[in-house]
Amino acid sequence: MTNEQTPRLRPALDGIPTYKPGKPAAAGAGAGAAAAAYKLSSNENPYPPLPGVLEAAVAAAGSFNRYPDMACAALTAEIAERLGVPPEHIATGTGSVGVAQQLLQATAGPGDEVIYAWRSFEAYPIITQISGARSVQVPLTAAERHDLVAMADAVTGATRLIFVCTPNNPTGTAVRRGELERFLDRVPRDVLVVLDEAYCQFVRENRDDAADGGIPDGLEVYRDRPNVCVLRTFSKAYGLAGLRVGFAVAHEPVAAALRKTAVPFGVSQIAQEAAIASLRSEAALLERVESLVAERTRVREGLLAQGWPVPETHANFVWLRLGERSVDFGAACEAAGVVVRPFAGDGVRASVGEREANDILLAVAEEFRKEW
Ligand SMILES: Cc1ncc(COP(=O)(O)O)c(C=O)c1O
Question: Where are the annotated segments for Disordered (predicted)?
């Protein structure tokens, strides 16, 4: 044995792109702070925790010498009642990305294929590669939407799981009921379809969306289809990103498989209590969502008025397909005081945040447009 020897790691890990979190804002975020004071790079909720939710979390912190309730029983019961689904169909996890990883552990391995649209949520390629399965990326349409016909065409005997991200991160577009039903009718019943609805509370149907059955609620789609699973999170609309709690709604045996693949005690008691308090404060939280939706409309309309082609967005962010200029735009935003999320060579995603932050984004975009 030589000192150069290292433990043998799975070859599947070679070349995995590391998850790039949205850059943080500079210290002292807020009015009057130095450059890059605002963070619009991770689709977080800019509002601080509601007082009742914070109190619930602080109270739970008083017993963090104990393990949390591993079954998340109280939270599961609360979610089940609200959504009108059996508690056995709910599986909680450390954020919905944690649950997505469990879904892969439960369904896919070497030799298998996982289909998703591209560009979509950055974690999909990473967690797919970790599972050992192969990613099959299906390009978005020119309108930045899922191409569900092409995704159904991409199914082979090796397909085990398909992610449908709606609204899609980072483009904001949502699938419609008709196209989704036609897609599901073509997918074999032994392939799991995951409707990732991390941003569903931000969906507002417009006239165009009403065509083809409108934008579906994944829960209605899941009810009659045992191979459909819905992913939801407390990180976005509910503002609990830092506490890491999300869940799946799935039929047996998928829900049971999620319980098997869960990290034991993964969801802290603080997160569980805060999530319960959030559900009980839903009206106040959804009021905040409404304000963010109003800001989203203002930002998108401002960008459209400047001449940018911004796709309709149903999430708490906007997408600018800036191609080779994406990184430059990100740098210009940062210099002006907001951090956005550039995807090199592709586009820029900017979360809808505080009004002042959104104003800075609009001002940078206006300047940029002049030299476009
Ligand atoms: C589409 C989508 N799904 C899932 C997640 C994961 O969220 P969390 O793990 O915080 O629940 C995100 C976060 O950005 C997302 O954009």
Answer: 1-20
